[in-house]
Amino acid sequence: MLKRNLVLFLLASFFAAPAAKAEVKLIAIGSLSGNIRDLSSQTSAPLENGVWGNLLGGIGSGLAYAGCNTFIAIPDRGPNALSYNSAVSDTASYINRFQTLKVKLSPSNLGSALPFTLTPYLVDTTLLFSNEPLYYGNGAGLGLGSGVPALNTKNKNYFTGRSDNFNPTPTPPQISTYPNNARFDPEGVRVSNNGKDIFISDEYGPYLYQFNRNTGKRIRVFNLPSKFAVSKSSPVGDTEISDNTSGRVANKGIEGLAITPNGKTLIGILQSPLLQDGGTNGAYTRIVKIDIETGFTKEYAYQLDNIGTSAKPKYPTVSEILAINDREFLVDERDGKGLGDGSQAAFKKIYHIDLTNAQEVSNITGESNLAGKAVSKTLFLDVVATLTQNGIKAEDIPAKLEGLAFGADVVINHVVKHTLFISNDNDFIGTIKSDTYHPTGIDNPNKLFVFAIDTTDIPGFVPQKIKGDDEYRTPKDRGRR
Predict the structure, then answer these.
(1) pLDDT for 117-166, tens place per residue?
(2) How far apart are CA 399 and CA 341, in angstroms?
(3) How far apart are CA 227 and CA 247, in angstroms?
């Protein structure tokens, strides 16, 4: 009876809530130190650049809800912010992996700055590998040894972040999406509805792979449209750009990844426009819709905001896409300013888009031809404005807020609210020794920002149903305030 009365009380409170559009509010901040190691002790030996091979960093490059207050967090290609060898763009033989986090979101003590306290826990580290042989660079002429991980066995060939780990003569010739390249730069991650697999997109190929969540074994390769690939690969990003006239800009491949709540469709988004669409000077990047069963793809255009002037346009990049339902999505557009860059954050915004009536653009190429064909978008959340309103200085907002995921619902003032988690990529730099705004240095942890969303702000929201997630969207007495 008590449980039934609580449900009726929550429902009554929900339907009594005003219909006016409510603000998206910051309710909690959590962090994990960027100066500790993850749980893969077998990779702890120093990398070529001297950094621990299992430093817990960059885990906000991608964030996915996995059920039962569990999240999958992925670091990108590893620690390459430390200059040591420009011939490989300062990348190292960091073995790609994903981190499994448990989070506890509980009401704060009275008088606290935010209504909730978020405590994340690292519970597992899973390395990514292929049973099939992968192609690694031999380091010749680069001042390095072989790129083959010492941990490799006959049936476990690990993916790594080192930029020379690609086949220079694949079939077809020199196509960057050759599936047995060992180099991998994870950026987007989502969990399958059965909870057994994860999908990860990357910037190098770009690639889109499916892995077994329990073992880290690659079990499927999705063939992306050839227009996304470059024909001439290089371990140096600037060289890749100058040597190609089409394909993804170097290290700006499929940055964001969504999965529809029904678990049938993946939605990827490029960080920047294709070279043939204008590259980093272009206004329209691409969304690719992938049917998981068939691999069939469709494409849509997404228009970036101009954050320069009309005479000299400047565009941000896209870091993430997140499904509200099977047709509506949130998209994270951002600058590279803030903590970690030695500057002040200015532009980090989440937009709401709807693909229902969007024009398919697979057969359209070029910035001018994409004009007028982009999906419409509306501002959903100005992250910089919200964080500064909560007393966080612009220079303390992480430069790379890259991961988006919905979490479990909470109850605030007797009203059920959805939660949105935003994570940062700290570039594996756990402590900033000194910059313009922090002359004595400052910690630079892996952070999670949690926002509460009223149901009126996303009325079409449909949660992804992940097998075994009995707690999801059921606040009960948990998280009440």
Answers:
(1) 999 999 999 999 999 999 999 999 999 999 999 999 999 999 999 999 99
(2) 6
(3) 5
**Burial class for 45, CB neighbours closer than 10 Å (0-12, 13-18, 19+):** exposed
DSSP per residue, 195-208: SSEEEEEESSS--E
Query: Per 3-state DSSP, what percentage of the chain is helix, strand, and coil (rounded to 5)?
Result: 10, 35, 55
Tokens 């005479």 belong to 311
CA pair distance 148, 146, nearest whole angstrom: 5
C-alpha distance across the termini of the chain, in Å:
22
By the 8 A CB rule, do 395 and 413 touch? no
DSSP 429: -
Neighbours of 412 (CB within 10 A): 18
The model scores a pTM over 0.85: yes
Both tokens of 25, joined, read 């509010």
Q: What order of strands is seen across the sheet that includes strand 62-67?
A: 62-67, 70-74, 97-107, 116-127
Q: What is the mean pLDDT of the chain?
A: 92
Given the structure tokens 């049973």, which residue do they identify?
131
- For the residues 208-222, what does the mean pLDDT come to? 98
pLDDT digits (tens, 9 = 90+) for 20-55: 445 899 999 999 999 999 999 999 999 999 999 999
Q: Which helix (H) or strand (E) holds 13?
A: helix 2-16
Q: What is the pLDDT of residue 6?
A: 37
As beta bridge partners, residue 52 has 46
Buried b (16+ CB within 10 A) or exposed e, 62-83: bbbbbbebbbbbbbbbbbbeee
Instruction: Check residue 474 and give its pLDDT.
Output: 52
* Residue 424 near residue 446 (C-beta atoms within 8 A): yes
CA 66/CA 457 separation, integer angstroms: 23
Specify the residue for token string 């949105």: 420
Report CA-CA distances (Å) from 105 to 66, 108, 114, 120, 205: 16, 9, 12, 9, 37
Phi, psi of 129 (to 5 degrees): -150, 170
